[in-house]
Structure formats: structure tokens, C-alpha cells
Specification:
This protein is mainly α. The chain has helices spanning about 1-45, 50-70, 80-85, 90-125, 140-170, 175-180. The two termini are about 35 Å apart.
């Protein structure tokens, strides 16, 4: 059972690590695109609406794939009022509780409501309201699903890791100071 949970934790970690790589690539592409759009507009007096909207599509991709990576490396926003007063085990309990009671349920709730939001957009064939804009408006909406699936993945990984660390902490045999002197 332990090995299976460790494998699951490892694969969830690989998935969120991959999300960080994808987010970084999206950011590089977005920087190149913004620079190209700006250069085309100010140097050549030309531009395309669909290229400007592509920037927003890339922004949605970058942000939504970056959430889970930020969670993985503890770079997300948190309120340290409580955790700053706790020891390591107290923070493990708080983090595990937060993943189980806040992050996982909120992710599931957002996924539940985001699916019809994206599906209706896909079924209607929604596109940009701007002339010459991007088609497939469902793609940035689908990024909500991708992003919160990754957040759910990372929350599950952190809950498993926190549970494993807490279990190890409480199952670890205590050293008897008198037996340590004899050895």
C-alpha cells in the first residue's frame, strides 16, 4: 500500500512539474508574441487583431498551468498568521488540512461549474466579438478546466505527502535516552 501511494505521489508530482515547464514555455512564447506585435505596430504601422487576442490565449494558458507549479514550490499566496506560530508538525497538519478541506473541494467545485461554461462555448462555436479576431473562444475557457485539474492534482499530491510525513512522524520509534547511553 505504501509503495502504491508513493508511486501515485511521484506521478502526481511529475504531472505538476510538467505543468511548470509548459507554463514557462507559454511565457516565453507570450513574450516573443508581445514583442512581435509591438514591433509590427510601432515600426511598420501594421498589426492583426487575432495576434493580439492570441496573447490573451497564451496568458490564460500560462497562468492556468502555472498555478499548480506555484503550489508545488510553495510560492502561492497564503496567510502566514497561523502557520508562522506553528512548529514543523503543526504546519504539516495545517497544510494537509488546508489541502483536504479547501483546495480539493474548491477545485472540484470550479471544475463542476467550468465544464458547462466551456461546453456551451464549444457547442455554440463562439469566437471573438472583434472583426478578424480569434475563433475558438472555448480554448481559454477550457484552460480553467486544465488549470484546476492541475491544482486538484497538486492538492492531492500534497495531501498524500503530508499524510505520509505525519504518519512517519507519529510511527517513528522514540529513542529512550537511557538506552542511548548504554549503546
Amino acid at each position: 500500500m505504501k509503495r502504491a501511494l508513493l508511486r501515485i505521489e511521484k506521478w502526481l508530482g511529475i504531472l505538476t512539474g510538467l505543468s511548470g515547464i509548459l507554463s514557462g514555455l507559454g511565457m516565453v512564447l507570450m513574450i516573443v508574441l508581445v514583442f512581435g506585435n509591438m514591433s509590427a505596430r510601432y515600426l511598420f504601422g501594421t498589426g492583426a487583431v487575432w495576434l493580439q487576442e492570441l496573447e490573451l490565449y497564451l496568458l490564460a494558458f500560462t497562468v492556468m498551468t502555472g498555478f499548480a507549479y506555484a503550489m508545488r514550490h510553495d510560492d502561492h499566496v497564503r496567510i502566514d498568521v497561523f502557520s508562522s506560530h506553528l512548529n514543523r508538525i503543526g504546519r504539516l497538519w495545517l497544510d494537509s488540512f488546508t489541502m483536504l478541506v479547501v483546495a480539493i473541494p474548491i477545485s472540484v467545485l470550479i471544475l463542476y461549474y467550468a465544464w458547462p461554461y466551456m461546453a456551451v462555448s464549444f457547442e455554440r462555436g463562439e469566437g471573438s466579438p472583434n472583426a478578424g479576431g480569434m475563433p475558438w473562444l472555448f480554448l481559454p475557457k477550457a484552460m480553467i478546466l486544465v488549470g484546476f485539474t492541475l491544482v486538484l492534482t497538486e492538492a492531492l499530491r500534497q495531501a498524500l505527502a503530508g499524510g505520509r510525513r505525519l504518519l512517519f512522524h507519529y510511527r517513528r520509534p522514540r529513542r529512550n535516552p537511557e538506552s542511548a547511553r548504554e549503546a
